[in-house]
Design goal:
Layout: H1 2-26, E1 32-34, E2 43-44, H2 48-55, H3 86-89, E3 94-103, E4 108-117, E5 123-131, E6 134-150, H4 159-165, E7 177-180, H5 186-199, E8 204-210, H6 228-231, H7 234-238, E9 248-253, E10 271-272, H8 286-295, E11 312-317, E12 324-326, H9 327-339, E13 344-347, H10 356-367, E14 371-375, E15 393-398, E16 416-419, E17 423-426, E18 432-435, H11 438-455, H12 461-471, H13 496-508, E19 511-519, E20 525-528, H14 531-539, H15 541-544, E21 547-557, E22 565-572, E23 578-581, H16 584-593, E24 598-607, E25 616-623, E26 629-632, H17 635-644, E27 649-658
Helix pairs in contact: 8-11, 9-10, 11-13, 12-13
Length: about 675
Amino acid sequence: MQFAKVLKLTFLAILILVASAFYLLNQPNPQSIGRASESSIATQSKNEAISQATLKSTQNQKNRAHAIRTASTPPAPHDLLSNPPLLLQKLLPTQLISQDTRPVSDEAVWRRSLVETASNLGKILFIEEIEGENTTGYYAYSAERLVIAARDIQSGVSEDSIAKLGLYKPYAFSEFYFLDINADTPADIDQWYNRTKAILIGEAVVELDGIQVNSAMPTDPRYGSQWHHGIISSEAAWNITQGTTSILVGVLDSGINAFLPEFAGRLVGGYDFVNNDFDPADDDGHGTWVTAVIAANANNGVHGTGVDWNCRIMPLKIFNEEGVGFVTDVAAATDFGTVSGVRVLNYSGGGPGYSFTMESAVNRAIANGVVFVTSTGNDNSLVEYPGRLTQTIAVGATNINDFVTFFSNFGTQIDLVAPGEDIVTTNQTGGISTVSGTSFSTPLVAATAALMLSINPNLNQTSIESMLRQSADDQVGGSLDTPGFDIYYGHGRLNVDRAVRMALDSFLTNTASVYRFFNTSNGAHFFTANAAERENVLNDPGLSSVWVEEGVPFRVLAGNDFGSSPVYRFFNTVNGIHFYTISIGERDFLLDNLADTYVLEGVGFFAQPTNVPGTIPVYRFFNTVVGNHFLTVVEAERDNIIQNLSHIYNFEGVAFFAYPLSSN
């Protein structure tokens, strides 16, 4: 081992000497700074093989075989992950733990696989229904918990059963329980299920927790080749936010091809600091690659998608056609972006030398609310500048196996890593390129910062850097990825979903709870975000004997911020019931025509009129018997009323948008 290490170091030393000599002979200016990007590893369309292999999935799963396999001849175990179906592709990387077969009829068997995922789903039970030689269906369930729902919602699950089994409620406002289980084989899950069902027979329904595929998956034809989205949990984050046009991202690079459909409707006028004009066209290609990783349009039928689907992009050209630029251009472009309202700056570049000019520009940007994200470099040495500055967010690169790449720079200044090898992205001619380098791990982090700001615009460099570090996946890449911080992985590999959820949680601390009360005498509901009013209802004997608190269904903004609108509260003097509306037209109609009956009490709280990032819809029903309105954010509650109580409740649609109790 020692000899091999010496041999490797000797080889690296020779390689560095040759590279240094080449660099010095070809350096256009001793003060220029080169991009720390594509590591000559970028290979044009490398290619269709990745796309075709990844997109193979369940295309034949509905074909039934004429030759029937009997239960006595089950299919042989196989490597499920060698060609995973789409559901498992969304959860990559995964590891097969155990596999068995189970007959379900004379014609079909279940091949059951216990799979460990790197996502927040943990272990899952993946079931393939097989007839003959064909797979006719897929199912997926959590292998870490059972769901227990009371048969009679009024009586619920008994306290004795809850204590005996160790059940717990994941949400206070939902009427079901979780039972954590520990399974190493599919048969273990059977035992947990059967034992729990026997204990709760007649009292509750025991179920496996099914997994549904979310609807945020882009339809772009090359999306299946963009393996990095699965590893960094982009799709889960897109269920919370897909970005917003209010966030402007500046890309310090070689410019952009502004005429590509991947950037249609997204660009803001930038500047070319190489040629000193307002046309930052990309004559190198690097800038277009990077920008597409950040923000390629989703669901437009062209190639793949970026991490942020809605942010605006400002191209700031600081690299020439050879991919070289001056430090002063970097500094000037940083200042230009800062005064232009950029919230995130992506700089996929760097060099070995410190520059006060550049650091000053970086400091000015950060002081003005800009998040500065940069690459570590690509020569397997120490982090380059400006990544070596402690105030920047410095990003290294990993591969599809979560191992740090051979080219990624390292050191005490690295903050985190992200996928940066064989990244499929759009090139400046409108085609597809497969590229590698810390240049392409950096925009994944920059785009994540943009998503975080779309939810909580009050975040800054310090808070976002802290959240990115805390939310990163630690110990994913072998022996070099030691617990906590290390010089190769920093604080871990990027997890977009957790970072976005942390941003949402930070925002929710500035929101107010809306309390829901039920009137036992007339069946009306009352909502208030006023803590003092809530306490009055709870403590007044005359009110508490009638009004029963049902908890907090959602949260709202404490004030009129971030594009919110007031929700007006009226009191009906005839039946003593309250009415809530965000509609000015509805408010004015009541004031102009029904002022004798409806008295405006003012603004009950503030909510969002549209579905901005992080919000959930609040559904409104009109009770035709009582004459009041009912609000809910729970889709199951909404569906139950529509299906079973439509003779009493008229569904009026979405009243406004509020915030969930937490990001989970």
